Structures are given as C-alpha cells and as structure tokens.
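Aim 2 progress update. The chain analyzed this quarter is reproduced below.
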Amino acid sequence: MATTDHILIVDDDASIRAMIEVVLSGEGYRVSTVDSGEGCIESAHSADLILLDVYMGGIDGFEVLRRLKSSPESRDIPIIFLSAATEVQQRTQGLTLGAVDFITKPFHNAELLARVRTHLELQRLRVSLQQQASNLQAANECLQREIAQRQKAEEELRVKNRELERFTYAVSHDLRSPLVTIRTFLPHLVDDLAKDNSANAKQDLALINTAAEKMHALLEELLMLSRAGRGVLVPEAVPLQDVITDALALVAGRIDHRGVRVDFPRTSLIVRGERARLLQVFQNLVDNAVKFMGDQPAPRIEITAQLSCEEIQIGVRDNGIGIDPQDSDRLFDVFEKLDRNTEGAGMGLALAKRIIEVHGGRVWVESDGPGRGSCFWVALPQEQVQCSEHRETV
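Predicted structure tokens:
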C-alpha cells in the first residue's frame, strides 16, 4: 500500500541501507538513504521519520541527534537509533537527547516495520494534537477578546445609565424651577389683566419671559450636547490662530466687562476638524475661564499651543479660583457644576469633551488647588506632521 510518509535511512554500511530500503519500499514508504551524519543533517528537513545509525565515520549519531533537535526545521522529526550495542547507558543517552526508540542490530523485519508504523502514527497524533491545541488556543483568545469586549460594553452601559440618571435628575431639577415660575405667575397675569393693572401685568410677563428663556437656553444646550456625538465628522485644515481669535471675539464682551488680560501669541499651527465645533470648544473654555476668575484683582488668561510628534496640545490657563484635584474628573460630566450659584446648566465642559473625543482627541484639566488657577488642555491628533525632535511652542 502506497503512503506519503518519507523515511530517511542513515547508515555507513551500504548493505544495511539496502536491506532496510527494500523492506520499507515494499510497504509503500518513500525512502531516501545517506551514508553519513553530515548527509543526514543536509537531508533531514524533508523526512517524516529518520532511522539513524549510532556509530558512523565522521560525526556519530549522538551529535547528529543534538544538531537536529537544536534546529526548528528538524526538532520535531521522530528519530529511531540503529545500533549493535545493547548497553543501557547508550540507550539512556539517546533517549535523553530526544530519540524516540532504539532498534538493536541485527533486527527482524517485522520488528522494524512495527516500530516505524508505531512512531509514524504517534507523530501524526502529536501533530494533530498540536493543531487542536493551537485551534483551542486561538478559540480561547477569541473568546477572551469577546468577553473583554462584552465587559467593556457592559461597563460603558453602566456609565451611560449613571449618566442618564444624573441627566434625568438634572433636567427635571433645572426645568422645574422655571416651570414653577410660569405656573405661579400665569394666574397673577390673568388676574392683573382682568383688573386692568398693566404695571403688575408687565412684571408678571417679564418673570414668565425670563423663565421661558431659561428653559429655551437649557433645551438648546441639550440639543447641542446630543448633536455633538452624532453625525459624520467632515474634518478640514483649520488655522488654530483663526479659531482662537474667533472664540475670543465671541467672548469679548465678558472679557472686557471683567477686565481680563488675554495673552495669545501668533501661531502658524494647523488643526484638522470641523471649524464650527472646534470654535464652540474654545469659546466654552475661554468663557469658563472668565466666569471663574473670582475676585482676582488682575485676571489673566494665557493660551498656548505646542506641537508634538502625535498631537497638538492647546492650553487655556487662568489665574482664577482653581479646582480641587479631586474634582477634576467629574468636572466634565453632564450637568456637573461645582458651584450651583453660577449661571448655565453645567454642560459646557461636557460638550467640549464630547466634541474633542469625536475628533479623536482628549481633554483634561490641571490645577494646584483652590485659589491657584487652572489650565484646561485640549489635545488633537496631528496626522500630517513628520515626527522629529523639533517642538514648537507659541
């Protein structure tokens, strides 16, 4: 019966090589023969099993075995020693070095064939088990990735649920106050109109209008927040100088009223993103810096930008009231306000964070504590810049 198994016979005795070749060829095996250890090392890579004489001229079988087992191409090939010696020490040495069996010369053909068949079958089983182990490992790694992804998704869902709870509470709380105002003064308005009391009616309408504007502003901020993480981003090359200049112009009234000095040296850096959204981010950061100056007698904002190998980092630093480092993370949560008495719904920083993350960037705040000012950092990926040791600061 023909077989695809290839057996390499290594013996310096031509008659033994010829005899073994006849026996194995008669069983359908493909057979090659060499007469030296050096020939064995050169030909071993194509063999499925090697019959190796222990004592030959040149390098002996033990050294051949060492070299074959040290090579990745031949270390897994089963090797059966052929030897006229029967000493236990030699057998032990061969098995220790990696031989799978010993056949003592002279041998019976049936014994030779039985051992060859057995070790070829064992080799096939080893290869099959290795493949199964490899498949199981790959499946396990895939499963671990799926578990990790599911755990990440579950954690993200828990975070979203907590955010939704805070969101629901904050919306209901912030909308309740103006609604109460409207419901309270509508009956007064009706009564004052019935009595033709125009002065009181104007006051009622002013209070109702203020409450309605507050609700409108809150709903507009909610819409902006929801839109920030949706839609397809269409980035373009935007000069950072133009974005910051426009942001400062939009907050110029507040800056002038508070008497804030703003330092922003000119820069030629280019960022990639949607101009309107990036403008919204820096407008919020500058506005936030002015808003929290406290009673600082010489309020100052310094805007800096620096270019690294991977990103542009823009900092908006102020000398205002500062932040407790423990509050730095929750500062970017939706509706998070460290001071409930300040204007706004507490969505400006959450909106800025969401917009920058959509751009593939990150936002963080640094502060040495209350009364020591803060610096809000925005980092945007800079894919077009060649990485070098050069670092630009403006």
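The mean pLDDT is 84. The domain at 6-107 is CATH 3.40.50.2300 (Rossmann fold). These observations will guide the mutagenesis experiments scheduled for the next reporting period.
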